[in-house]
Amino acid sequence: MKPFLLLASRAEDAAAEDEYAAYLRYGGLAPEQLHRIRLEAGPLPELDLAAYSGVIVGGSPFTSSDPAHQKSATQHRVERELAGLLDRIVDQDFPFLGACYGVGTLGAHQGAVIDRTFGEPLGGVEIELTDAGLADPVLRGMPARFTAFTGHKEACTRLPPHAVLLASSQACPVQMFRIKENLYATQFHPELDVRGLVTRIDIYRHAGYFPPESAEDLMVAAQHFTVTEPMTILKNFVARYAS
Known about the structure:
Blueprint: E1 4-8, H1 13-27, E2 34-38, E3 55-57, H2 73-92, E4 96-99, H3 101-109, E5 113-115, E6 120-129, H4 131-135, E7 145-152, E8 155-158, E9 164-168, E10 176-179, E11 183-186, H5 194-203, H6 215-222, H7 231-241
Parallel strand pairs: 1-2, 1-3, 3-4, 4-11
Antiparallel strand pairs: 5-8, 6-7, 6-9, 9-10, 10-11
Helix pairs in contact: 1-5, 5-6
């Protein structure tokens, strides 16, 4: 089959490697089936979408809705490159799955309102599927309610009218949506299990997501959640679009 493409932007090697391993594990992919490009490391090369089964955008420390003057030169470059790529992806309705940062990228590209109104702290959240979500093939086999890990400074406050809401939560009304037939974005992390969350808490304790002194307490709290359902999204996405 053609490989999938993972576009990553985590500068910390430990976080980047843990994320890549999670997509391999829960997507059921071998390393040669998941080509990774680390966007923060250098310019995005010219891509032939026809060489891939689909595109996945992982989480990111970048916050799309920050004022332009607060963004680094690297973030500005990454945003320009992703916007240009999304022009092609949306035009072709090419299989796309954006996790967390996918809301800020695909959502903003499609005219959604992205701001800090519905940010969520790191931890487990109950996600509820909409009727459209229950009927969507990428969510096939998932229960109407499940626990997933979140942790984000920004979220989607208002979807564009052509988007389909697939999942919501009490504190964040847009947890997953679809554009056209094949373009998906989640606010929660479908690749993140308990061990992965603990790793990220440790790595990002000084990144502004939570008070640094609370890191150990958050690690302990993570152990009390059972998070097994979100990974089905990765399995379904790979199974549907592998070509």
